[in-house]
Amino acid sequence: MITMKDVIKEGHPTLRSVAKEVEIPASKEDKETLRKMMEFLHNSQNPETAEKYGLRPGIGLAAPQINVNKRMIAVLVNDENGNLHEYALYNPKIVSHSVEMTQLENGEGCLSVDRDVPGLVPRYARITVQATSIDEEEISIRLKGLTAIVFQHEIDHLNGIMFYDRIVENNDPFKKSIPSSFK
Ligand code: 4LI
Ligand code: NI
């Protein structure tokens, strides 16, 4: 199973490189890696397993964060409306997005960053993502709010981008934002 010692931290060159496309059909190894990434998110959100293995809670994980330089992400999030979104994907791509932007009111955290980085991260309010699911179905999904933010954060990892690269000082304080009470 994946634990925090498998999660590489800022400064590691893999976090700054562009990850490679996964060839479909995926190898058994790639599928197993993706399955373990989703298992990590479940374990990290379960108080018992998180405590037992010392896991920091996360709602998204990208393969480069475990030093696998391939385009795979896992997202497990209970959104601000209480709906569960569980996605394990190969080669996710944002194919369209809103003009409207949003942000997490309390900023973003990352399992690869062991410090609090203050500041707001502007994100598209709505995105459409095309990808191959872990079951190898071509999917197209429309996402908004917190789920859309997590996807953008994870897809950024596939392109060597960290959330703090996008922090802006002059942010519109009246912009609609996602409150920190989403859990
Ligand atoms: C416990 C059990 C306050 C500070 C509020 C915690 C189960 C920050 C928010 C969680 C912040 C769960 C989260 C992300 C933020 C902050 C990620 C708690 C886990 C909130 C997820 C990828 C950014 C995602 C909302 C610096 C590890 N997650 N909080 N950002 N939660 N969590 N991100 N921001 N300020 N990061 O971190 O998984 S997108 Cl589910
Ligand atoms: Ni991250």
UniProtKB/TrEMBL annotation:
<dbReference type="GO" id="GO:0046872">
    <property type="term" value="F:metal ion binding"/>
</dbReference>
<comment type="function">
    <text>Removes the formyl group from the N-terminal Met of newly synthesized proteins. Requires at least a dipeptide for an efficient rate of reaction. N-terminal L-methionine is a prerequisite for activity but the enzyme has broad specificity at other positions.</text>
</comment>
<keyword id="KW-0408">Iron</keyword>
<feature type="binding site">
    <location>
        <position position="157"/>
    </location>
    <ligand>
        <name>Fe cation</name>
    </ligand>
</feature>
<keyword id="KW-0378">Hydrolase</keyword>
<dbReference type="Pfam" id="PF01327">
    <property type="entry name" value="Pep_deformylase"/>
</dbReference>
<dbReference type="InterPro" id="IPR023635">
    <property type="entry name" value="Peptide_deformylase"/>
</dbReference>
<keyword id="KW-0479">Metal-binding</keyword>
<dbReference type="InterPro" id="IPR036821">
    <property type="entry name" value="Peptide_deformylase_sf"/>
</dbReference>
<keyword id="KW-0648">Protein biosynthesis</keyword>
<dbReference type="GO" id="GO:0042586">
    <property type="term" value="F:peptide deformylase activity"/>
</dbReference>
<feature type="binding site">
    <location>
        <position position="153"/>
    </location>
    <ligand>
        <name>Fe cation</name>
    </ligand>
</feature>
<dbReference type="GO" id="GO:0006412">
    <property type="term" value="P:translation"/>
</dbReference>
<feature type="binding site">
    <location>
        <position position="110"/>
    </location>
    <ligand>
        <name>Fe cation</name>
    </ligand>
</feature>
<feature type="active site">
    <location>
        <position position="154"/>
    </location>
</feature>
<comment type="similarity">
    <text>Belongs to the polypeptide deformylase family.</text>
</comment>
<protein>
    <recommendedName>
        <fullName>Peptide deformylase</fullName>
        <ecNumber>3.5.1.88</ecNumber>
    </recommendedName>
</protein>
